[in-house]
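Lecture notes, unit on protein representations.

Consider one protein chain, 376 amino acids long.
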Amino acid sequence: MLWIPGPTEVRPELLAECARAAIGHRSPQMRELIERLDPHLPWAFGLSAGSDAHVGVHSTSASGLMEASLRGVGPRVLSVVNGAFSRRFFQMAELLGKDVERLDVAWGAGVEPAELAERLERDGPFDAVTLVANETSTGVRTPLAPLANVLREHGRAMFLVDVVSLIAGAPVDFDAHGIDFAFAGVQKALALPPGIAVCCASDRYMAGARALERGSWALDPVRILEGHAARKTPATPCTPLYYGLARQLEDISAGVTLAPGTDAAPGAAAWGARFARHERMQARTASWASGHGLELFPAPRFASPTVSCVNAGSLDVGAVVSGLAAHGFSISNGYGDLKGKTFRIGHMGDHTEKGLEELLAAADEVLEVVSVAGPR
């Protein structure tokens, strides 16, 4: 069973939806399928009542929408870099020819509001600030509200936020956090196979993007979002995954993915109960690690609700990963610079607290053997 930080385990019901027969992408069936998404995407992005934000789906990876987000902003970009995927955001801006600067933050931490304010005051104005809200490589969630306050006080920069491993696992609160463009793949806390991505853009972002030469056809954010609104995708979409996404969004909103007996009304309460389950799984994983003399890589206030990155200490990470694989559980080694130094557990999506206990019980057995074997 997949307990890696994505792609994650997919329920059989969703796999069955993905096995439906193909339909014409200009057919009434496709219009109906897209219309099934829109009542629920605002819950996923946490839009405020009366929001003027635009939601959409595109047949690309989250990295495709990362690039699309940058095509809709002006040339001066400040990229917060505190992990592998936030570094990708910076590198992508460079490749697009943006006048991009880095705000480097130690891996394992989120950017502090004062750091961002100082940089905006010293080197601004910027057309956009990029951030990965939940850095999958390090298990770091950066609190968005304090950063939103800083951006409101320091000019006109668009706030571009990667919510890849956050959405459907924790509140995004798009409007409250002053986000202008957010995007995510569906293979993490939305618990679907990879292949399509979701996005949300503020009306301010859309107005600014329409005034620019965006230099792309397939990754033009305006074409993507206006095509979704018109129920006419720019190109042939991955219809099997649209079926899976529609079913998953409906199930989350109806509370179908919650544990039996969970008291949550359909809609916002059901999404909130799902978020609360992720927080409990994170707390349980941190407690388990502490019980073995281990600790999370990030400071507790930055701990992700969906991905726990655990310092391995003297453990042989490869042995831990392979030992759990022998029990039928797949977790991940550290990513990039953290490989061999950490391991990651993706407690996200439709995973249950009962399932987590089974994983941790198997991990107890594995650590007994690996610990006896001693340091690498």
